[in-house]
Automatic annotation (TrEMBL):
Xref: NCBIfam families: transpos_IS630
Tc1-like transposase DDE domain sequence ranges: 80-198
Gene3D superfamilies, A to Z: Ribonuclease H-like superfamily/Ribonuclease H
InterPro entries: RNaseH-like_sf (IPR012337), RNaseH_sf (IPR036397), Tc1-like_DDE_dom (IPR038717), Transpos_IS630-like (IPR047655)
Protein name: Transposase
Organism lineage string: Bacteria, Bacillati, Bacillota, Bacilli, Bacillales
Entry-linked Pfam families: DDE_3 (PF13358)
Length: 223
């Protein structure tokens, strides 16, 4: 094979020594979900299964000139002026119920420990108190902070965290939802304020939850 030293192909080294163990733990959650969905009579090990993450840096951008509609014979796409006005950013904190497909979301100014704890409290009020909530999530500092641990101590046995391995965000089902909302709503969105951006994201969540569709994970399950 002829070498091509003038070209570079990037790869990602697995730097987490426990990658396979953590991966197996995440896939075990998805396996439990499959059992529940295929056999309603099987009692799950945990009562609620969620996939959670944050989508930070959602920009609230306003046009400085009106968009131009497509015109037959002239241009077939929307015309948009290259200049725009920034109104700041928002973060979407979201968890998807792996059994029902329901998305529980919260649009915030930031995504610190404070916002994460508030989201856990939202889950606590959303689900019946006798149910245990198992969450697949990454190792973001807010998920393992002193503030988060202090809150978890106030609700013993209510939550269980299953952490994805480092560089293993692709194992988290919620990422498919973030890809979907980016493609359908956020990619070319223009708003006049952050308040409008928040309203439109929340409206999208309401629309999704009118007919929620559970995501069926299959990759690696046979292993």
């Amino acid at each position: 094979m002829e070498i091509q030293p003038h070209k570079i192909n990037y790869y990602l080294q697995r730097r987490d020594p426990d990658f396979e163990t953590k991966r197996a733990q995440v896939l075990h959650v998805y396996q439990q979900v499959e059992f529940i969905m295929e056999n309603n009579e099987i009692k799950p090990l945990c009562d609620v299964y969620l996939s959670y993450d944050e989508k930070p840096g959602i920009q609230a951008i306003e046009n400085t000139a009106d968009d131009l509609p497509p015109v037959p014979g002239e241009h077939k796409t929307i015309g948009r002026d290259s200049e725009y006005k920034r109104h700041g950013t928002l973060s979407l904190l979201a968890g998807i119920d792996l059994v029902t497909g329901e998305v529980i979301g919260s649009v915030e100014e930031r995504h610190r420990s404070r916002e994460f704890v508030d989201f856990l409290k939202k889950l606590d009020t959303h689900y019946k108190p006798e149910l245990r909530i198992q969450i697949v999530l990454d190792n973001h500092s807010a998920h393992i902070s002193k503030e988060t641990k202090a809150y978890l101590e106030t609700v013993p046995d209510r939550f269980e965290f299953i952490f994805t391995p480092k560089h293993g965000s692709w194992l988290n089902v919620i990422e498919t939802f973030f890809a979907k909302i980016t493609k359908q709503v956020l990619r070319h969105i223009r708003v006049k304020s952050k308040e409008e951006l928040k309203e439109r994201i929340e409206l999208y969540l309401q629309e999704v939850n009118k007919n929620p569709i559970p995501f069926r994970w299959t990759y690696g399950m046979q292993e």
